[in-house]
Amino acid sequence: MKALVVGASSGVGRALAEGLAAEGKDLFLVASDPRDLAALAAHLRLKFGVRVDTAACHIRWDDAGWLSALSERMGEPEGFDALFLPIGSSREDDTGGMAEGAMRQLVEVNFFSVASLVSYFLPTFTRRGTGRIVAFGSVAAARGRSANVVYAASKRALTSYFESLSHLMAGTAVNIQCYQLGYVDTQQSYGKRLLFPKITPRRAVEIVLGGSRRGSGVRYLPGFWRPIVWLVRSLPWAIYKGLRF
Amino acid sequence: MPSAFPEAKTSYTSFDGHTRLFSRSRRPDRYRYWDLADLDEVTIPRGAGLSYVAASFSARSVTVDHGRFNRILAFDGKTRQVEVEAGISLGDLYDFLSPRGFYLSAQPGHPAITVGGCCAPDVHGKNQFREGTFIRQVEGARLFHPAHGIIEIGPRRSPELFRLTFGGYGLTGNLVSVTLGVKEIPSPIMSVRTLYLDDIHQLPAQLGESAARSDLVYSWHSFTAKGRSFGRGFIKEGRFDVASGYSAPSKAVAGPATHRPLSSESRGSWRVPLLGSVTIPLCNRLYDLGSRAARREGRMGLYEFLFPVHEKQFYFKLFGRRGFWEYQVLIPAHRFDEWVDRVRVRLSRKPIPVTLASGKLFAGEGELLRFTGNGICFALDFPRTPEGREFAEYLDRLSIQLGCLPNLIKDSRLSARVVAETYPGYERFRRELREFDPRRLYRSELSDRLEL
């Protein structure tokens, strides 16, 4: 059995691939650039002796064929017992009024692609009665604001989708988790002055992989974000509307 | 550059504490970065940032941090080759190679240093007389330059560019990957022998004798001792203890679970220096006495042999925030006595608390700005004070007069004039660099200071 990691070339995705390989897990890695995949796959094979297959895939809203092309490369879902889907996309100009194509692309990457992949694997996991599906939301979606408008909306859709999945699979051994990521030391946060400390992708992955026996549900990573998100959501509108962050 | 690879404004410090400045920086993690490079942008690559000098930053360059390009790309035990991305640390490479029975035979003494950081100044270890400098174990490399794309270089493929790059201080481009020849570990254990040396003038002859029977040799001397005791110390010889046998994987070669981190910022974290004119002579005296009281023969593991600085890195912290100077110089063996005598006289007239005086035997041919050749490689460390600077300037004059070669990567104040007068290949390096990169798109504080 192997694990699928989509968005494996950098950040949390790459750290997940490394963490899983260190546990001896065979992998199927997906990212957009075959050069990154080749380098990572070679490294994991050599260092950990695991089997690593890869597929380069561009997730595009205007090309519905990406999933069928990818599923051809992946083979039957029976060969997998875990999905890790740390994919996401954001844009600096996501401040309302984005062009339709750009907007659809954000929703495609942040929500539909994850939902499509889950739909591809879920029947097999359900029939088998075991499996693990992990997605990654963002604390940026805690409450709508003037930046990351479509990004936050798509990540909230993802969170809602995973709440539904958790409910659907309650009572089974199919583990459904959605981690709401705080600040992680990736390209997205590089060079930014942030209010709260960043964690390394490696530390984030230690928590995720260490949480395999925890039940399904939505979690904050790191955990200190839970009260912060609660506070942001609890702020009266009269105060919230004046905040700029 | 698109927002996929954002910039930061980063404060950088050279390891010796001398050069501190803000620079723009990027930390790419995907190969797409090389597709997007800008032909008008001045940059400089950076590894672990442990160079004593500001070789990986300047006020007008964008520093490109290679830390996320740190993977092993290929390994073949039969041909004894490993291909790695340039941002991999020596410690991580050791962790991969040693259980398979291999190691890099020429490398500097801290595991946090990256392979790219070894290539740029073409570093050496304590076995230079036998293994040469880092370039000797390089089979090939892929070099990126915005005007040329990715170029394959090696001893037989674009050899001129290869020799310009290894020892080129990062000024020819970004190393994307490096293929290294590795050696079988003869034994996980080193036998170490200490020879006491009361007269430093015996050093060249003694190093030669020791080198003939050893795999590594270095010396330590007290340059704070007075009179006839000046320069007394010891030579350490290390030899692979082949009799102890070796079969991979062996626990004996395993390094620590995690390599101790080291950075220029952490080195200078103590505001107050603990090494000064009172404490240094005392420390040297105690170190000398302690070494003489210790056993003359002992053993050490391969990790400790390859990375001696790993357990001694607190030494650099003792200099505090103000930092230190290191003057490392290659002295022709026949000028060594004169060099020592003139340094002794200078120190007796204007005492400088020299914390470290250490020698190694060097062999090989110098070329361009590569720090190599035949002679005694001698390093002096002392606090970064105005008096220390005057002493270093005295050493510059000595280098010019005696035909010595100062190491550019160790000294933050070395001038273009001194380098031009001591390195016969200085002008050729400048010319070849401009032929390859007429727009000089790779610059650092080091290259600006040396007018490269």
User: How many strands, what sense, and barrel or not for the largest sheet of chain B?
Assistant: 8 strands, antiparallel
* Biggest interface, chains and residue tallies: A-B, 18 and 22 residues
Rounded to an integer in angstroms, the radius of gyration calculated over CA atoms of chain A is: 18 Å
Query: How much helix, percentage-wise, in residues of chain B?
Result: 25-40%
The secondary-structure class of chain B comes to alpha+beta
Helix content class of chain A: 40-55%
User: Which descriptor suits the 3D outline of chain B?
Assistant: globular
Instruction: Tally the helices of chain B.
Output: 15
Shape of chain A: globular
Low-confidence stretches of chain A: none
**Rg of Cα set of chain B:** 21 Å
Strand order of the largest sheet of chain A: 3-2-1-4-5-6-7
The arrangement of helices and strands of chain A along the chain is EHEHEHEHEHEHEHH
Relative strand content of chain B: 15-25%
Order of strands in the sheet with the most strands of chain B?
Answer: 15-12-14-13-17-18-16-19
The CA-CA distance between the termini of chain A, in Å, is 43 Å
Round the mean pLDDT of chain B to the nearest integer and report it. Answer: 92
Structural class of chain A: alpha/beta
Secondary structure: number of strands of chain B: 19
